[in-house]
Amino acid sequence: MANRLVIIGGGPAGNAAATYAARRGVEVVLIERDVIGGAAHLWDCVPSKSMIATGAAMSFTRSMQEMGLESRSAEVDVEALTARVDGITDRLQGNITNLLESQGVRLIKGSARMKSAHEVEVQSASGSEVIHADFVLVSTGSRPRIPEWVRPDGDRILTTRDCYPPKVFPESITVIGSGVTGVEFAHMFASFGSKVTLVVSRQQVLPSKDPEVAAVLEEDFLRRGVRLLKGARAQSIENVGDKVVVKCDDGRQVETTHAVLAIGSVPNTEGLGLEEIGVVMKDGYIQINRHCQSNIEHIYAAGDVSGKLPLSSVASMQGRKVAEQVIGGPKGPHRHLDYDKAASAIFTEPEIADVGLAEAEAFASGRKIRVTKVPFSSTAKALINNDPRGFVKIISDPATGVVLGGSIVGQHAAELISVIALAVTANLKVSDLEESLFVHPALAEALAEAAE
Ligand SMILES: Cc1cc2nc3c(=O)[nH]c(=O)nc-3n(C[C@H](O)[C@H](O)[C@H](O)COP(=O)(O)OP(=O)(O)OC[C@H]3O[C@@H](n4cnc5c(N)ncnc54)[C@H](O)[C@@H]3O)c2cc1C
Predict the structure, then answer these.
(1) How many domains does the chain have?
(2) CA dist 285 to 135, 140, 317, Å?
(3) Residue whose CB lies within 8 A of the most ligand 1 atoms, among 113, 140, 175, 180, for a mutation test
(4) For 173-199, what is each residue's pLDDT tens digit?
């Protein structure tokens, strides 16, 4: 009899593991309490980027004259926007569900917990069921962190999950947190015409990023009238009827019609019965080895619950690695998942993307690197697109020429970074990029130029 893999949570991690394992003959049961596709489709990646795309279309209308067009202003139609976001998520959820079903994955809509190390208990509309599992994957994701000093009301004090789209578009909004999610929300609301204040706890937005990269974004925020409240931590948020009052620890106070929290996430691991069966956890995250295996050999964790990189792409790859382990190891040469080589992007304007070794990281460790930087303004395509902002930076080993990392700020950075990500993963040299025949006119020409 085939081994049975029981997966709790149908986000990117669970789905990738399910399809990869089922295709290779494993009996897979996938339990999901909300919707297949997970938080990634319902609340996080897909709706946020759908809204940002609509916001970008609105921003475009403001620059129509520069493109040789008659200027027309656009208005938000909340109903149409809701239908658009719902339409995209429904379609993606349908695609994944069909794929899983076509591969023979048994889908159960219900809430699961571990009854014992080899038994998963499911509560569904049709009652309770206990399923024997040879292998278990816990991929239950995470949810927004809500600190004890604030109580979101879904009306004026919002979490990111209340914004797809919000019931009314805020006249003004305070975004608490200036990490990736915070800057994306600040950008999104500014594109829709809201007056945005961003509470930045340090002296730079995106504190973990290259200061040069953060500076381009800050410049764009200031140009668009986004107010940056630097060195301030929000301490309380109060809904006083027609507005919210945000008080910071340095005495500063902001009054806006709305506020949104973007201060990280917490793992969905409580109530799963994991501690009871002896799974080692830290701060609610399941501790895993490089095979995504917990301390109990047949119990794996992937995605946000593993406390590694909270990215949908990483979750999917972890899920795939788990499936490889379940089928007895990969068929071809094995590569461990290298979290340091994950590309990531921030969907602001301009977009920001990076991969691999960062300049600051190399300097801090004393590693010798070669850095080459080319502004997009030197390419024909950026001028044609009417957006010459930003640059491409490639970091390589001066002795061997091997590409170690890079960052891109500018239009389509999230797409273009894939070229550098491939180079980093495949140990390509800058000469490989330099000698590639890229399209002209294309923004990618800046990559070839930076490789010279
Ligand atoms: C606003 C925002 C925007 C983001 N944008 C991006 C982006 O553009 N790109 C990117 O790569 N990442 C993005 N992320 C991060 C990304 O969403 C997560 O890293 C990703 O969703 C993690 O996938 P996962 O499989 O671990 O979990 P999830 O997608 O969270 O799925 C977990 C699933 O498990 C289910 N579940 C939980 N408990 C149980 C239970 N007991 N029984 C049954 N089912 C259960 C949940 O209902 C959920 O459907 C964003 C995050 C946020 C907050």
Answers:
(1) 3
(2) 19, 11, 18
(3) 140
(4) 999 999 999 999 999 999 999 999 999
